[in-house]
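Practice problem 4.
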């Protein structure tokens, strides 16, 4: 049990260290005169990163991380202009296609209403080895 706790703590330290390293590098580049895009350290990019980090920590189960990632991604795509092409025009259809694929391909959890009220007998005859 202790090794699992220590591994979890080491993973958190590694993630936090990488985050601080990336933010410090972006600030250093910006302060030395390198043209860093304005959207790199904006609220929506932070929201996108937080959503992806939460999804990674929970093995991409649930939907809280997905909402953060979609909202952050939409606003980040709106801020990015590559070769005078607005990515926001194609980001909403891409998000809808991705959401549709997620709904279609996600694992199915089938539970009948009757299963909640079934009384299952307890077997006390099994011996653990």
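Answer key:
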């Amino acid at each position: 049990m202790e090794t699992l706790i220590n591994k979890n703590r080491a993973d958190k330290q590694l993630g936090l260290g990488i985050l601080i390293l990336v933010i410090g590098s972006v600030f250093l580049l910006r302060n030395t005169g390198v043209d860093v895009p304005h959207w790199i350290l904006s609220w929506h990019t932070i929201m996108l990163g937080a959503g992806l980090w939460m999804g990674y920590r929970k093995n991409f189960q649930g939907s809280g991380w997905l909402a953060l990632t979609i909202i952050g991604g939409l606003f980040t795509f709106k801020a990015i202009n590559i070769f005078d092409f607005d990515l926001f025009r194609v980001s909403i259809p891409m998000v809808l296609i991705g959401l549709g694929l997620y709904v279609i391909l996600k694992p199915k959890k089938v539970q009948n209403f009757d299963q909640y009220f079934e009384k299952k007998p307890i077997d006390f005859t099994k011996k653990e080895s």
